[in-house]
């Protein structure tokens, strides 16, 4: 991905990256956050957004959950994953958004300029100081 992004940048193209929160499950959420931040830094996208994993009935991932082989992180852990990605990634000029319906917390800004404000907003949500999008609003 990083190599493809480098070539796209060299060709004058803009890069848009969408990351998927929760796909590492409970076991790998911290690793997923760190590695996503590393890859975002390497890819240096102009646009960066997040989706939150939604388990769809009848899918292989639902079957893994049913067998106890995958566990979706809690909402606070999903927010911590997002917070780590924002805190640790170093894009040079990215428009960042989490406004997709799958996300519990819509935030936006420019990275790196608005990093501290975004990290603080996520922390407020983790602490319960900011209302989250209700589950029934999280549609695809």
Please write out the topology.
Blueprint: H1 2-10, E1 16-21, H2 25-43, E2 47-52, H3 60-66, H4 75-88, E3 94-97, E4 108-111, H5 115-126
Parallel strand pairs: 1-2, 2-3
Antiparallel strand pairs: 3-4
Q: Can you count the helices?
A: 5
Q: What do the pLDDT scores average to?
A: 96
| Biggest sheet, spatial arrangement of strands | 1-2-3-4
Category from helices, strands and their pairing: alpha/beta
Order of helices and strands: HEHEHHEEH
Terminus-to-terminus distance: 26 Å
| Residue share in β-strands | 5-15%
Number of extended strands: 4
The outline comes out as globular
Rg (C-alpha, Å): 15 Å
DSSP helix fraction = 40-55%
Low-confidence stretches are none
The largest pleated sheet is described as: 4 strands, mixed
Give a structural overview.
By secondary structure, this protein is an alpha/beta fold. It has five helices and four strands, in the order H-E-H-E-H-H-E-E-H. The chain has helices at 2-10, 25-43, 60-66, 75-88, 115-126, and strands at residues 16-21, 47-52, 94-97, 108-111. Strand 1 (16-21), helix 2 and strand 2 (47-52) form a beta-alpha-beta unit. Helix 2 runs parallel beside helix 4. The longest helix has 19 residues, at 25-43. The chain is globular, with a radius of gyration of 15 Å. It starts with a helix and ends in a 14-residue tail after the last helix. 26% of the residues are buried.
List key phrases describing it.
alpha/beta, globular, 4-stranded mixed beta sheet, about 45% helix, about 140 residues
Compose a concise summary of this entry:
Helices cover about 45% and strands about 15% of the residues. The chain has about 140 residues and is α/β, with parallel strands linked by helices.
